[in-house]
């Protein structure tokens, strides 16, 4: 659980251009099931120190893939299982473990016909499934944690990586060795309490292609509207700097300009979000629109709007700005919306959208948004 072995024999061998249908498991080898208590879930972690809850499917060997190539993986179709869960492990992990020495687990029926789940009576989460982990093997042989993401992709937790999107990832070992797991039905930007709306997949349908003529040094994602660049580090400031550098490379390639010029363009076209803050290495991803007239919602409000409840924080340290802005939203949900504290923490994890605002000066800004349209009359 939560460990991958590069030496493990492939479970499947495929050719470039093949389409693969994958079934994935719930956390802890399908032991996180309705009726399981948070104490039992915590014990699954403490009984196996150093091992995480991820249960991974793979590896898949792609014939012809070699170090220096790029593997293109397109998500064609995702069908989640019947239920999902969100939990925070008492006093462990998450963004605020010291603030939440108590924990809870919630289980949800996933209404795939409506593509939604009821988080609390009258609070409905739209389902947008994506693999929290999709990875190739690392360069280093041996056994390693599935928790931190990196140049091999892995536990990116980028919620925009949904059906129809494509991952481009550098190949580091022969056959690439593709892994997936940590299947999500929905997630907020930040994933603050440790978990998203976690689930398993009855079907994850992907097509793999080996690209011999693409030269990238870090993963990228392509969606219908955007190219997504990313950065990971234990320090959010460094993760943002890395994402900015990757974005400059992308824009320089696309616009045939220098990376210095591209860095200046970035401030007007790119839209950066906090992917997650709970995977040892925190993540920032930037959406770069393919068409200036077809951008994602780039709003960065500092107070409530007609569409969003908003919390905003500013600091020279992006880690502090993120802590303050997300804590502000959780407290708003408790005090103004009357949601119990652990439910507020969980709702923020599955639905809050934390966006990086102006960071050109000494102060960095984080804007955490909560869509008002989640609140509906109970069915």
Relevant terms:
379 residues, alpha+beta, Jelly Rolls, Endonuclease I-creI, 2 domains, 8-stranded antiparallel β-sheet, 6-stranded mixed β-sheet, globular
Written overview of the protein:
With 379 residues, this protein is of the alpha+beta class. It has two domains: 3-211, Acetamidase/Formamidase-like domains (Jelly Rolls), CATH 2.60.120; 299-379, Acetamidase/Formamidase-like domains (Endonuclease I-creI, Roll), CATH 3.10.28. The chain is 19% helix and 35% strand. It is built from six helices and 23 strands. It has helices at residues 27-30, 38-46, 236-255, 259-269, 318-335, 341-351; strands spanning 3-5, 12-15, 19-22, 57-63, 70-80, 83-88, 104-109, 116-120, 123-126, 130-135, 143-145, 153-155, 166-170, 178-186, 197-198, 201-211, 220-222, 226-233, 271-276, 282-289, 308-315, 353-356, 364-371. An eight-stranded antiparallel β-sheet has the order 3-16-5-13-17-18-20-19. The chain is globular and about 55 Å long.
